[in-house]
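Re: the 54-residue chain
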Amino acid sequence: MAEAPPFRTLKQHYPVDSLAEALAEGIVTGHPDMPPFELDPHQINDIILYLDTL
């Protein structure tokens, strides 16, 4: 999506450690091109660790 900021800049604008709760609840986006998704605790931890490396 052209309007979306680059994923690699997420850590610069948002504390990634605080994403764990939102990821556990399931994220629903504000546009129809991105479906909702749910992650298990292991996947959430992996994503947080990955985002911290960017």
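Residues 7-53 form one domain.
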